[in-house]
Amino acid sequence: MEFRAQTLENISPVVMVVASPEAEAICQSQNGLTVTDLLRPHGFFHHLSVPVRTVGEQSYRIKEMRLRFYEASAMYQPAPKAADDHLRNVLSNAAKNVADTPDLLAAIKKGEVPDALPWFKKYREEYMRMLRFSDNETFDHPVACLLVLSASEPNVVQAAEEMFQTMPLPPAMRDSSPQSPVLRHHLLLHDDRPQPAAPPPDSQPEGKLAQMKEGLGDGACSLVRINSGDKQRKSTLAGLWHSQIRSPVDGGGAGEPSSKPSVPEQGYGAALSTSDLDGLKRSMEDFAVRALIPHLEGKVRSLSQQVALTRKGFKNQIKTLLWRNRSATSSAILSSATSNGQAETPATPMRTPRASTTGVFSSLSGSQAQLRQLADAAFLIQDFETAASTLRTLAVDYRSEKLWHSYASVQELLGLATFMTGASMQEVMTHFKEAFQRFSPGERDTNRDGVRYATRSMLLLAQYASLHGQWAEAHQALMRAHLQEEEGRAAVLLEQAALCLLHHQPPCIRRFAFHFVLAGLRYNSCNLRNLGRHAYRQVVGVYEGRQWAFIEEHLHDVLGKQSKAAGDLHGAVRHFLAMLPCPRSPPSWQTFYLRQFLDAATQLAASCKEELGPLDLPLPLVNMRHPQVFYDNQTCHANGAARAVPGSQWRRLESLLLPGGDAGPNWLDAGSKANLASLQNEVCVAGEAVTVAVQLSNPLGIPLVISRLSVLAHLDPLEEQEGSAGSILAEEVEVTLAAGEAREVRLQLRPQMAGSLTIRGITWTLSDIARGERIFKLPAARHGSRASRDHLRQPKLLFKVIPSAPLLQVDLQGLPGSVPEGALVQGRLHLSSRGGPVSNIRLLAAEPHLLLDLSASLANSADDTLPSSAEERDRTAQAESTASFRLPQANVPNKGQAFITSWGSGFSVDGQAGACSWPVCFHPRLSGRLLLHLLWYFEPSSGEDLKFRMLRMVHEVEVVPSLDCRAQLIPAPDDLHTYLLRLQINSLQEAEGLELQQLACSSPGWHLEPLTSPAQADSSSGSELPSESAANRARSIGSRAVRLQQALPAKLQALLYFRLHPPAQPLPAQLQPDTGQAAEDAAARFHLQGKQLRLAQAQAAHDRQQASQPKQKQKQKERQEADTAVQIQASTASSNAAPPSSAPGAVQASQRWAGGAPDLSLHWLSSHDHLPGTHHLYECWPQGMAGVQMVLRGASDIQHNFAAQPLCRVQLQLSLRNCLAAEVAAVATFGSTLQDEASASWTAADGGAADVPACHTHIWCGRKQAHIAALPSGAVHHIAVEVMLTSEGMHELNDFQLRWKCSVPQLSGTCHGKPHFIRISSQP
Predict the structure, then answer these.
(1) In the prediction, which pLDDT does 1015 show?
(2) Which domains does the chain have, with CATH numbers?
(3) What is the mean pLDDT of the chain?
(4) DSSP 88
(5) Taking the model in full, what pTM does it have?
(6) CA dist 620 to 265, 612, 761, Å?
């Protein structure tokens, strides 16, 4: 209803109804209606055209009018407490139908936000009704009195007079002097039901009506016939009264009696016919047009004249100014209402009102009463201009006299009047705001009765503003009104204010939700639980996922408790469930919330006859978008570590076993629809596990117990198979998540038959009470160029299950989880099968740390006893005939060496009974986390879907550091053929010591012997561990090894010294180390394997560098390498230092030295578990060695008689040895001739010969230069020289040098001689 129509309905002429008991009985007995209720639907006239002229010469027409009918005994304002109780009942009745209200959040998304909630309009209407009939507002005072009599009265005129004299007056008319006339009208009610006997002629209703007109006046009477309908049928007219009948207030008042008649079974108006209603409506319309409107017109003109007499003129203005606060008594005016020359109508006198009964307004008296009556009467007759001008005058009076409540009432009605005249919105809203401000009590005002009227002003303002699209003004008005109201009314105002926020552009959703939460709090405080729960439910969705945890907890806590108290266990469980993920709450609150939810879930499960279904449990947190699924088909995995290895690495290894295998789909058909459909379905094998890895996390500060955690899956068997019971075996896991813990849990399921398998999600039980379920949410597959790539990133959830196939089982026994670096661990490789025999077994080992001995026995025991049965002997023969061959290093993913071992097509393994085992040796040479990659190829004996299968296996070992061994090799100063070896050994063990067993040299032609001089051994802390006793105990073991037998405690250091003898001459080809020859023992085989690996790595690095350089720079690079190669100093090889062969051109440099570099092996034994180990030292290059070595030899202590002979001649020998692998030419220079060699034809690579200072204590005799044209590789040449000494004492001979040159490769250099000392003493 629009605001104008509602204003005309609320402020319309009031007709006071006084009915005789007989008339009431006629209506109530047959229709369940009082006379007043019977008249109300017929008080609206919308097709009028009545001309009216009130003030001035201009007239206007009334198009429509509504009359309000009230019983005389109910025309008073109820007490505030009774009114509040009645309004509370209105909300309580609305709470019963709260489930029918729309979801506001859904309405926001649709753009269909309602203007108000269903109970708000009802509450507003009832609230306005509770404030009617105030003393100061005369538009609710009756303007006419309708006397209703039964036509069965014998003397209707006398009965009418008696009823008029004894009728109950409203409180506003009691004990008051006559003031203004009230129109009096009579209605004769005739019961038109069939009578058993014909009535006498004088009792006919027409005769009674004629009687009444003769005695009371022709225009003041009318006749209405009722009850002519069929009461036996259900009433079809009951809808007329549903909106007109109001519920009574305790004690009566507000226009309704204290009680109402009961509703008949056939409904309201069951005995009324359409003709009865038409006659009733014609009578009321005649009454309004012919009597009521002329009466109001005359009343307005009369009041206007009285106001003009008392207010106009200079004298009256002075009187009003001086005696404004005094009351003026006006005389009574008695007049009769006439219309169109009709007879005068008797009137009921109005008396001067008594003092206000509400305690809000001042009493009406004098000119102010006349002004108010004039304004209200003009409003009732729709003369809004006169009403507005009169109200403005009255407002000035009240404001000057500071009668604020009366002034506020005038401002409120002035707002309605200006609206009806078409004033601006700002002016209308200003009047309503002024009324609210003056109605509101001040800080010191103890009278709170004005609050109700202030709220009425804001309700009018909010309704007016909302109808004109001013939602902000409406929201502000309602918020101002709720601040000073009681809890229930404040909650209603808050709800409506929140709805106003949704009409903003854009909607203020957060403020709306906050207002609704406040409204819910108010509802709960006044025990309106259903409405409070409704308010909370409307906004729960606003706070979800907004990180406003405490508001969410409050909402769900209140909703859960109220639902549980109301018996709604489903709602209680739902809201308590939403409170569980509360990471910001203290642990004590989290424990309480969890217990509260579990109790509600237990009660719900006990109340349900069927099993309680799964809940959407928020605990624990499950990552449903990224589950990992592991399964085996043609490719199998022996353990989880094998799955962790990237698939690309396994595929490179598989390409070595299957060089001609299928390369898979190419990029041309990757995005086709057929290929995309095949990508969506993976293949697994019946009876084998499909593992789903999910991430679980506990966001709370308390532990969570998760039981019966398993995978949800569905298997559709093939059509030819019958019965699917037990087709899936799902593993159930129990997990306890600590506070804040996140963990990956792997769940297994095994399809038992072939078909189509779908993995849906997971299910679990929280604390053995509440069962939860989550469904995986994966993005839909796309068609296009990126379809295959998207598929690779998505987990596989759809499987084609093929029939079961045999599977090879491998167990690597005896290998501990942690071993020292360099240890030699003996283990066994155990093979068996499951589901049937397998054959044609092949093994690819991509690690150089593992050695498999196929020549050993196939017995299952750990010893190497020979097989006893003929079958086992055949297997042994087959195994011994298998081949183990090495693959090229470039094809191995980890840049090491891979070995393939094949058992042959005749060898098979059948179940556990036919299991076999072989000894294996594990020798780690690097510290850290070591992964052993083993790839098995085998062919199942049964199953057409799988021709072969690949088993991936990874064994993880933690290798701890054991030794840090550093070797330093230098040429012997006194011997051209031997080297001195300094071996520094640091123990890296934390607690366990080691026992050094022996040092061996594996290079052909090299010999090793201990030094007889004592060596020093230092600890890391500075303490010394003498090795003299060790050197004394050491003895030569042939020529290749030296036994040590020395203990090395943890965290200590030892220094050992040895002499190495290189080969006398370059080894022939048959004596070079053979990379394909098997060593006698495991340590030697591992040593040879490591040597091959280093050479292969160096060669591969050199090849990569050669390929990466442009061709035009390649020759220049080789030339630079050749020029600087003479400066190559072979550093000592160590376990953690790269050998010189890793440098560019190292392959050629390793061939320049005669005899190469020796390879050493240090064998040790752990002190605790006596675990053997070997530390390998590869390519121990000598330090400080030139291409040609020389040494000056001769007598060092001479006696000579200088008196007899002034010069002493000493014979010396200069020995030269070619250390290069090629022939060289050399020139030896002695004495001062060195100064003249700057212009030589060829110079040294390091800048030429250095100047030798002149010497006067000795003189070189004979030739100053010695030329060697060709010195073969490894050859030794001796040059005899003489020197003359001139005095006694110690003589140092160092003024000699050697320049050499090699043509292939182009190398040259200069060697300065080492000083030779000669002591000469005088001979007696």
Answers:
(1) 39
(2) 3-77+137-305 (no CATH), 616-631+689-778+794-803 (2.60.40), 807-960 (2.60.40.10), 963-1068+1078-1107+1117-1128+1138-1177 (2.60.40), 1188-1322 (2.60.40.10)
(3) 77
(4) H
(5) 0.60
(6) 59, 20, 14
